[in-house]
């Protein structure tokens, strides 16, 4: 009897185990390029029942639509809203691929495999098809402005050298057990992982991909692909595959089962007006609100008048199709609720026929006796590889491009792979509904369901949230000379800005900031400037965003895209854009300004249509310039300090014939002159160019326009900046009691930069940023303090298009005009001058930090008075 009972109990136990095993959650890792559509996909996954689908990790692909620093914080915000701080997030990495093909650990995925060298600086062969500014990365990095206005902020954030890398996260999560990969960006991260960890492939059950286009026809023009900025050279590719065709090939051909949701299927699920309106009526959760807001801004800023026909559910549709297939795995042919499926044999084109040539376009073969990665000499990878939007190889006289890089072509034979492929979206089974696709119903249902709901948005995170603008009242005060600060947003520029804000207004009247995004940060970093101004109680200072391309760098046929000929000298990863974008991870500690970058726009300013709040539109540099000119008294003039490339100033000179007559003088931080053989410039990633300085190099044509103008120019050259680059000195000087908030923040920033410099060679050049404060100090201190002396020299800037010489400055006696050059100053007092200024209680921060703001927004109090 007892034996029988025991037997009964164990078999019941076995039955329970079996039930649990089939109902196991599917572990999912999502690799994303952080486009808007990616958030729709991500939130859809996060809303599903976690005991069915468990999103374990997100790795960020930084080849295309967004930048690393902005992306990682953006994803942290989403996960925080959704109560999912447990989801691992990986971005970047400093490893490279050696000349012999050895893939080092932690390759960052910033650069496609074919161009990946040893660092994170490099060209933009494929990425140049994506707009850098409005309509592209600027919109994605800021989520049209909603990232800061809507998403709550938790404690996770990017932090230099501490952020888990994409490869670390992939290795960890795939080692932990069976997992499915969802890939909704370019394939660099996943390909690098597969190439370096073949022994872990067995843990990857399946790879689901949004990408490619096999029998697809783009509704606008009938091309296979969707590279709308480059149909004339490549009408075949789809963006995700084009971002790194060689990587996509590696993934598709990895032997792991692949399901593709290509353009064939996504082209059949356009975001219709009916769906849009139904969504507008159904926003019952924060995440639904957030997605709708974003989608609406995508619509309102859409480049043509065919949004409802030409914007599709891409990544979100893929997340629906894939999870539905996973629920029906017992069926053999990918049967699912949302899409018709078919098996097809395809490949990914990575180079163009004829194969086996060597024409300088293909770094995997050119100039090598053994091709990189041991590729076959006359194989599919050995042809011409598209070099850019204007690659002459790709053009044909009929106007239809012939390059196929990134195309998922239907092929047969040994070099083809059988994949399961979605061919079209299924009709809504309920034919009385206004939603014509089954997936629309699911998407709205899932986003609005009460399960796994977002906890709050930014304004509801804090019960006493209030937007306050701090504007000082200078009435009755005597104001000093009008100054406009033109910065490229490197860490040193932010320190210089603190300094300028502390100089008494009776000495200088800082009226406006021009942001030049052709240097150390991208345009989205403009938000950090707003935050700093808010902290310092200077929401009155207007900020103008400059053009994202240097002179002669945008594409003549399509100015929203272009080359990165000079900008490629700046690393994407550590010590480069990743850190500049986030102010070395500290930008999130600044209080949040109600002012922020927004994609809001109006017809009046050339937008295709008005958005809801055109008054919030971000002013452009030229508009800000004009408004400063208008605001000053007749007869008075403007002083300009430039701390970055001279792009914005040159464009002002070219656009406004009166500008030079209203500019008193210009102080330019940059340029390297009077060097000797051992005194190199600082463009370290272009070794052939020994003597250029970064600000000149990044836009040599602009520098030439400014140098050749009639302006009264004073140069603060590299040799002078190098006299004031001792971190320990300046950090120590800032170490006084009762620090002002700005001194405290500056000291933290400098300390962090100094520690990074000591810890890792990617941060060797940190002291370059320290010297950037010098321009602001020289401009605003009187003769007695630093005792500066200047000499006049006839100078010429090299600007011919040759990157091994461009940006160098030559003393040229034939030059009729002379430029004042800072020759000497008391550099020992410099640190005191800076520290004393920041210590001064006058013109100090109005609100010290985000933490202080959180305290105010969490406690009931009347706090309307404004310090000044
Ligand atoms: C989630 O799935 C589990 C296991 O299938 C089930 O027990 C639970 O009720 C589901 N939760 C919801 C909210 O549907
Ligand atoms: C946050 O959510 C609340 C409540 O749904 C809403 O009223 C508010 O507008 C949202 N905040 C933003 C910035 O959209
Ligand atoms: C390349 O191929 C050669 C000859 O087949 C082989 O000896 C060598 O190990 C291979 N190298 C790599 C990196 O696979
Ligand atoms: C399709 O690809 C598979 C490999 O995935 C191959 O075995 C098969 O022969 C191919 N079929 C055709 C018709 O080429
Ligand atoms: C909708 O479907 C029902 C049942 O399949 C069918 O009887 C009806 O004619 C359909 N209506 C339309 C408008 O297609
Ligand atoms: C660069 O642009 C300027 C102004 O747009 C033009 O005058 C000049 O010819 C261009 N130079 C080159 C090398 O394209
Ligand atoms: C330049 O100045 C003249 C004279 O003050 C004025 O008439 C003209 O409109 C100005 N041009 C621009 C572009 O501002
Ligand atoms: C710092 O502040 C405290 C409290 O406000 C004050 O007692 C102290 O004297 C201050 N110290 C200095 C050096 O100003
Ligand atoms: Ca994507
Ligand atoms: Ca700078």
Automatic annotation (TrEMBL):
UniProt entry tagged with the keyword Kinase: no
Inosine/uridine-preferring nucleoside hydrolase domain mapped to chain residues: 28-351, 483-827
GO molecular function: hydrolase activity, hydrolyzing N-glycosyl compounds
Signal peptide feature range: 1-23
InterPro entries per record: Inosine/uridine_hydrolase_dom (IPR001910), Ribo_hydro-like (IPR036452)
Protein name: Inosine/uridine-preferring nucleoside hydrolase domain-containing protein
Keywords annotated in UniProt: Signal
Family of this protein: Belongs to the IUNH family.
Pfam family, one: IU_nuc_hydro
Keyword DNA repair: no
């Amino acid at each position: 009897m007892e034996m029988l009972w025991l037997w009964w109990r164990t078999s019941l136990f076995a039955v329970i185990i079996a039930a649990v095993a089939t109902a196991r959650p599917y572990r999912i890792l999502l690799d994303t390029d952080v486009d808007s559509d990616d958030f729709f996909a991500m939130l859809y996954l996060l809303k599903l029942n976690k005991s069915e689908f468990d999103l374990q990790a997100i790795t960020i692909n930084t080849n295309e639509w967004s930048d690393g620093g902005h992306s990682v914080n953006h994803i942290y915000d989403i996960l925080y809203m959704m109560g999912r701080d447990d989801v691992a997030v990986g971005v970047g990495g400093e490893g490279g691929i050696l000349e012999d093909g050895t893939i080092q650990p932690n390759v960052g995925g910033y650069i496609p495999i074919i161009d990946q060298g040893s660092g994170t600086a490099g060209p933009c062969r494929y990425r140049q098809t994506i707009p850098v500014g409005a309509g592209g990365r600027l919109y994605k990095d800021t989520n049209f402005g909603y990232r800061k206005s809507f998403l709550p902020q938790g404690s996770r954030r990017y932090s230099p050298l501490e952020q888990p890398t994409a490869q670390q996260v992939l290795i960890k999560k795939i080692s932990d057990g069976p997992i499915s990969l969802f890939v909704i960006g370019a394939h660099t991260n996943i390909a690098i992982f597969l190439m370096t960890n073949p022994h872990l492939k067995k843990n990857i059950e399946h790879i689901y991909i949004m990408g490619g286009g096999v029998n697809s026809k783009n509704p606008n023009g009938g091309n296979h692909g969707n590279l709308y900025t480059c149909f004339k050279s490549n009408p075949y590719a789809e963006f995700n595959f084009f971002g790194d065709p060689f990587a996509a090939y590696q993934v598709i051909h990895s032997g792991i089962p692949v399901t593709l949701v290509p353009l064939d299927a996504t082209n059949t699920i356009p975001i219709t007006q009916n769906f849009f309106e139904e969504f507008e009526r159904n926003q019952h959760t924060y995440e639904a609100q957030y997605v709708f807001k974003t989608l609406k801004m995508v619509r309102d800023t859409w480049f043509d008048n065919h949004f409802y026909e030409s914007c599709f559910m891409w990544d979100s549709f893929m997340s629906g199709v894939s999870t539905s297939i996973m629920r029906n795995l017992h069926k053999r042919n990918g049967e699912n609720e949302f899409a018709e499926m078919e098996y097809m044999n395809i490949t990914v084109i990575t180079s163009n026929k004829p194969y086996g040539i060597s024409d300088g376009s293909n770094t995997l073969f050119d100039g090598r006796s053994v091709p990189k990665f041991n590729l076959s000499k006359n194989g599919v990878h050995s042809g011409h590889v598209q070099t850019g939007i204007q690659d002459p190889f790709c053009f044909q006289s009929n106007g239809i491009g012939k390059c196929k890089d990134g195309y998922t072509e239907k092929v047969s034979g040994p070099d083809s792979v059988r994949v399961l492929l979605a061919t079209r979206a299924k009709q809504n089974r309920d034919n009385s509904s206004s939603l014509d696709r089954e997936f629309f119903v699911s998407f709205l249902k899932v986003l609005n369901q009460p399960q796994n709901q977002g906890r709050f948005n930014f304004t509801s995170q804090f019960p006493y949230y209030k937007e306050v603008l701090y504007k000082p009242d200078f009435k009755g005060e005597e104001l000093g000379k009008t100054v406009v600060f033109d910065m490229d947003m490197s860490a040193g520029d932010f320190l210089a800005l603190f300094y300028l804000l502390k100089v008494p207004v009776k000495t200088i009247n800082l009226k406006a900031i021009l942001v030049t995004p052709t240097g150390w940060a991208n345009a989205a970093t403009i938000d950090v400037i707003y935050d700093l101004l808010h902290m310092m109680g200077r929401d009155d200072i207007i900020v103008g965003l400059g053009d994202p391309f240097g002179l002669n760098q945008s594409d003549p046929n399509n100015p929203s895209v272009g080359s990165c000929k000079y900008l490629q000298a700046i690393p994407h990863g550590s010590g480069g854009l990743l850190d500049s974008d986030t102010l070395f991870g500290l930008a999130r500690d600044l209080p949040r300004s109600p002012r922020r970058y927004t994609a809001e726009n109006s017809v009046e300013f050339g937008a295709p249509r008005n958005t809801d709040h055109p008054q919030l539109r971000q002013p452009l540099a030229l508009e800000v310039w004009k408004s400063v000119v208008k605001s000053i008294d007749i007869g008075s003039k403007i002083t300009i300090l430039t701390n970055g490339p001279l792009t914005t100033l040159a464009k002002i000179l070219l656009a406004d014939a009166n500008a030079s007559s209203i500019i008193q003088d210009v102080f330019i931080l940059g340029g390297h002159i009077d060097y000797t053989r051992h005194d190199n410039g600082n463009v370290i990633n272009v070794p052939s160019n020994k003597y250029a300085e970064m600000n000149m190099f990044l836009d040599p044509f602009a520098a030439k326009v400014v140098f050749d103008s009639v302006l009264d120019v004073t140069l603060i050259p590299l040799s002078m900046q190098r006299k004031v680059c001792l971190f320990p000195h300046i950090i120590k000087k800032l170490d006084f009691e009762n620090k002002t908030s700005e001194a405290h923040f500056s000291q933290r920033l400098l300390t962090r930069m100094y520690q990074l410099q000591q810890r890792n060679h990617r941060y060797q050049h940190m002291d370059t940023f320290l010297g950037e404060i010098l321009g602001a100090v020289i401009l605003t201190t009187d003769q007695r303090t630093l005792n500066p002396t200047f000499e006049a020299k006839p100078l010429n800037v090299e600007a011919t298009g040759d990157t091994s010489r461009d940006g160098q400055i030559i003393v040229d006696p034939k030059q009729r005009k002379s430029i004042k050059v800072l020759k000497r100053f008391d550099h020992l007092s410099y640190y005191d001058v800076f520290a004393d200024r920041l210590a001064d209680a006058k013109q100090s921060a109005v609100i010290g930090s985000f933490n202080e703001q959180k305290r105010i927004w969490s406690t009931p109090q009347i706090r309307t008075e404004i310090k000044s």
